[in-house]
Amino acid sequence: MTCEPGDLPPKAKQASRAYIRDMAIAAVVYVGVVFGAVTLIRHMPFSLPQWAVVIVALTPLIPALMMMRTYMTYLRSMDELGRRIQTEAWLISAGAVGLGTFTYSFLEEWAHFPRIDLVWIFPALIFFWGLGTFIVRGRYK
């Protein structure tokens, strides 16, 4: 048995609304922090000391941690089937990105493929998690 979004119990609807709201807030904060950090580090007429550059470069972690907290709160509000779907989706994501980066690292080293910055690993995890959620959810319909 599956629930359609309109068939959710009130508590699940409330958790879903809170998840969307809190994730949107964290995303807006993230974009603002990234633009602010880039401006400070690259576009200021003066150079920041290295310790300040390190601190500014790490500031996007704050909204990223907000997103993780929001997701964990939402995950805890799910029923067993929802948590199982999410767990399987994350396993698909970790497997795809783990094997993909492992494979590509050999191509970089031995076949002289272009380097890919590590900053793309987390977005790849998120993308494959979404894809995995779509696939796994379809199996339970």
Write the layout of secondary structure elements.
Elements: H1 10-42, H2 50-58, H3 61-77, H4 80-110, H5 121-139
General description of the model:
The protein is flat. The model has no long low-confidence stretch (mean pLDDT 91). 77% of the residues lie in helices and 0% in strands. It contains 5 helices and no strands. The protein is mainly alpha-helical and 141 residues long. The chain has 2 domains: 1-77; 79-141.
Task: Summarize the model shown.
The protein has 141 residues and is mostly helical. The chain is 77% helix and 0% strand.
The count of domains is 2
Anisotropy-based shape: flat
How would a crystallographer describe the biggest sheet? Answer: none
Q: How much strand?
A: under 5%
Percent range of helical residues: over 70%
Number of strands: 0
Uncertain residue ranges: none
Which structural class fits the helix and strand makeup? mainly alpha
Q: Average pLDDT, to the nearest integer? A: 91
Task: Count the DSSP helices.
Answer: 5
List keywords for this structure.
5 helices, mainly alpha
